[in-house]
UniProtKB/TrEMBL annotation:
UniProt GO molecular function: hydrolase activity
The organism of origin for this protein: Niallia circulans (Bacillus circulans)
Keywords, in A-Z order: Hydrolase
Keyword Heme: no
Name listed for the protein in its UniProt record: Cell wall hydrolase
Amino acid sequence: MKQLLFIAIIFTFISGSYIYIPSIAKAETISKEETTTVATRKFAVDKKENVKASDESADITNNEKKLLARLVHAEAKGEPFAGKVAVADVVLNRLDDKQFPDTVESVIYEKNAFQPVQNGSIDKAPDKESMEAVEEALNNGKENKELLYFYNPDTATSDWIFTRQVIKHIGNHAFSI
């Protein structure tokens, strides 16, 4: 079995394709009428990186989606749809960055991270467009992968935020790294 797995991994490196490796599988004899389901995980192999699971995308709960949509609504109300998606992307990008917490809730409620948490506007229900922006951010593979911060240059009061390298402007927000 180890030799077969080794050969499959080598072949994958050479061909750049995918392989399926069972997470947990027990061999047993079954009759012809029975069916057995074996749990598998899909692994993507990048020739430049180690083997890693391809299901590492941001899987968040419905409650986390609603919380993120409330933040998007509070932070980007009146902004274009692309700006709302970018606000959601900032939170999702922070989940993958070691300098930030690793859950949606802890990123959003991190001390002094987002004004709506401080002023209570995060508690207002999100609109349909904010919910759609969150879904777009989750489904588009984080189009704005590098963005970690955003602010309104006309209203920001922190000198520190102005030291961040601005990558793009969408509506009234500057998005930075």
